[in-house]
């Protein structure tokens, strides 16, 4: 029998939110670590932000777990720990040797935990992680199996039949329903792309029907596989966001992440949207963690980077560097300075690097001031 879990996650309690420690300490602090634990995945989605590094076999060279624990012990304030890939649950050895010990470590230390999974594998595979898991984060950009088939196998190296895809889609749906019924906090993320923009509200209501406790919504950004897709304009995104707010289920928490609209924008339409999101019930806008309170590291190479889908050179390595030292390097990095900003009246710490590079290239956010919200 699967473990039953209850989680205190709510719009009032998002431990991944970057601004809370900023308010407490007056500067950005490293409180969140994300581990890339595999480059394997059973899907090849058109929008995959790490698609270029996916492989058919993981490296046998891995950072020893005791050294990882040492680096985590050195972090003074560890609020959250996340696991990502690839598909983290694909390799049973990785689950046993790394995922379960890392989640258990965070759980015992009092940090909140998350794993990013496509949830298409056998349900029993998730049994070992559930006692230590706070958020099960899935990707959901579909209205039916045909939609999934078109999206999830774009970059597959061998043909996949619709019947195979339909079976995988149904497994994901059934797993989501079952785990949500058992009290697992399932957060479903949708990316706003040219393919989802016109049906995001339908996707939202399906996510609610599946029993998910949160709908996380992000724009598509040009990383790896997604570089070949159309990136929506700010005007197009505004329309999508407003339609979703018009048509959403108010009982389902919506979390808007990597939002490219700010309280310091000059556009009245932008400001109206920012205010609307702020005033809407069961809606939150998360200040992006990457570089503001979170770093990513890789269990194979040991490289420490600001985000798992960026092109910034490594800030250090687990073999030689404390994670807090790596974080401070990013705080002083020339690439970060134009958006190393903070507007307490707006509860905003500015964009991350991919948002700034996509929509605000050349803009120095330190010279801007947000309105009070």
UniProtKB/TrEMBL annotation:
The scientific name of the source species is Caldalkalibacillus horti
Task: Work out whether the entry's keyword set contains ATP-binding.
Answer: no
Fetch the Pfam families from UniProt.
Answer: Radical_SAM (PF04055), YfkB (PF08756)
The record's section on SUPFAM superfamilies has: Radical SAM enzymes
Sorted alphabetically, which keywords does the UniProt record give?
A: 4Fe-4S, Iron, Iron-sulfur, Metal-binding, S-adenosyl-L-methionine
- What PANTHER family does the record point to? 7-CARBOXY-7-DEAZAGUANINE SYNTHASE (PTHR42836), PROTEIN YFKA-RELATED (PTHR42836:SF2)
Query: Which Gene3D superfamilies does the protein's record reference?
Result: Aldolase class I
**Under what name is this protein listed?**
Radical SAM/CxCxxxxC motif protein YfkAB
Q: Which domain of life is it from?
A: Bacteria
User: Per the database record, which ranges form the Radical SAM core domain?
Assistant: 25-255
Do you know which InterPro entries this protein is assigned to?
Answer: Aldolase_TIM, rSAM, rSAM_sf, rSAM_YfkAB, YfkB
């Amino acid at each position: 029998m699967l473990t039953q879990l209850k989680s205190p996650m709510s719009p009032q309690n998002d431990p991944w939110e970057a601004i809370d420690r900023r308010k407490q300490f007056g500067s950005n602090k490293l409180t969140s670590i994300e581990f890339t634990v595999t480059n394997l995945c059973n899907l090849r989605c058109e929008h995959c932000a790490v698609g270029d590094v996916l492989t058919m076999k993981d490296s046998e060279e891995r950072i020893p777990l005791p050294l990882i624990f040492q680096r985590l012990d050195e972090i003074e304030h560890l609020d959250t720990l996340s696991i990502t890939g690839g598909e983290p649950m694909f390799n049973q050895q990785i689950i046993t040797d790394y995922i379960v010990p890392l989640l258990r470590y965070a759980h015992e230390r009092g940090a909140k935990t998350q794993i990013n999974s496509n949830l298409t594998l056998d349900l029993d595979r998730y049994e070992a992680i559930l006692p230590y898991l706070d958020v099960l984060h899935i990707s959901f950009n579909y209205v039916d199996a045909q939609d999934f088939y078109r999206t999830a196998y774009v970059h597959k190296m061998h043909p996949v039949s619709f019947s195979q895809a339909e079976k995988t889609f149904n497994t994901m749906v059934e797993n989501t329903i079952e785990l949500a019924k058992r009290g697992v906090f399932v957060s479903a993320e949708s990316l706003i792309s040219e393919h989802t923009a016109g049906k995001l509200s339908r996707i939202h209501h399906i996510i609610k029907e599946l029993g998910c406790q949160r709908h996380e919504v992000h724009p598509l950004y040009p990383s790896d596989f997604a570089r070949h897709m159309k990136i929506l304009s700010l005007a197009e995104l505004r329309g999508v966001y407003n339609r979703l707010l018009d048509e959403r289920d108010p009982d389902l928490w919506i979390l808007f992440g990597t939002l490219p609209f700010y309280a310091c924008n000059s556009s009245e339409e932008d400001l109206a949207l920012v205010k609307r999101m702020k005033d809407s019930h069961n809606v939150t806008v998360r200040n992006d963690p990457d570089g503001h309170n979170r770093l990513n590291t890789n269990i194979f190479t040991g490289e420490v980077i600001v985000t798992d889908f960026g092109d910034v050179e490594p800030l250090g390595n687990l073999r030689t560097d404390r994670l807090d030292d790596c974080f401070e390097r990013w705080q002083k990095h020339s690439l970060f300075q134009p958006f190393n900003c903070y507007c307490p009246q707006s509860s905003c710490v500015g964009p991350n690097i991919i948002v700034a590079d996509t929509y605000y290239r050349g803009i120095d956010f330190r010279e801007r001031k947000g309105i009070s919200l």
